[in-house]
Design goal:
Number of strands: 10
Radius of gyration: 17 Å
Oligomer: single chain
Largest sheet: 7 strands, mixed
Structural class: alpha/beta
Number of helices: 6
């Protein structure tokens, strides 16, 4: 069940990350998609990056890493995590990952299986589809919107995390740019969390796609 959804800046993500330091020591924590911004409180981590590659980068927040190399698992997070048992973890942390992967539905299903509660953070869909951020990724001109490597537009609708595949044309057509909400959507959940893909069958243009999402999700 989703307990809380907030739309905020990345500052709140850092505050939530820092807050995990207060989780009791006897509760196991796993960071799914730890990557270059791992969670120091995590006892276990899963990512395509190796332990050594991850440590070339700073952590997401302050604190000494708890996860040792023996508990750092190099794996595709979209595959079943058979190395973990059901409800093995009291808390799971998954930040800036679900928008990148090929199968976020399967990933969230596994997160729900292996943990009793958790937190998921991703890019708010209005920011993803409207913020001109090309310069952040080495573009010579700020000529596209959103993050080029993200695959999904994401929102919580009626207690379910919904994913709509993000077509390429929404990044290159800069018409119909409107003010985006805050950058991040933060989701706290317990017991289990549901996700599904929503298919878009409309006209292949930016305006129709954004209209479809706005009618389904409003500006939440």
């Amino acid at each position: 069940m989703i307990n809380r959804v907030s739309v905020s800046s990345e500052k709140e993500l850092l505050e939530i990350s820092e807050g995990t330091n207060g989780i009791p020591d006897d509760i196991l924590v796993v960071d799914i998609g730890a990557g270059v911004a791992r969670l120091p409180r995590a006892d276990y981590a899963v990512d395509l990056l190796t332990y050594d590659e991850s440590r070339k980068h700073i952590t997401r927040c302050s604190g000494k890493d708890r996860c040792t190399q023996s508990h750092w698992i190099v794996a595709d997070v979209c595959d079943p995590m058979l190395f973990f048992s059901d409800e093995q973890f009291g808390y799971s942390f998954c930040s800036q990952t679900v928008e990148d992967v090929r199968d976020p539905i399967g990933l969230i299903r596994e997160i729900s299986r292996i943990s009793q509660s958790g937190f998921i953070s991703t890019i708010h869909w209005t920011y993803e589809l409207n913020a001109q951020i090309g310069m952040q990724w080495g573009s010579p001109t700020n000529d596209f919107v959103g993050y080029h490597h993200h695959r999904w537009a994401i929102c919580v609708n009626n207690g379910v995390v919904e994913f709509v595949h993000k077509p390429a044309y929404v990044q290159w057509n800069l018409t119909d740019i409107r003010l985006a909400k805050e950058q991040m959507i933060q989701i706290s959940w317990s017991d289990s969390i549901l996700a599904k893909e929503v298919l878009y069958w409309g006209e292949p243009n930016r305006q129709s796609f954004i209209r479809f999402l706005t009618e389904r999700w409003g500006d939440q």
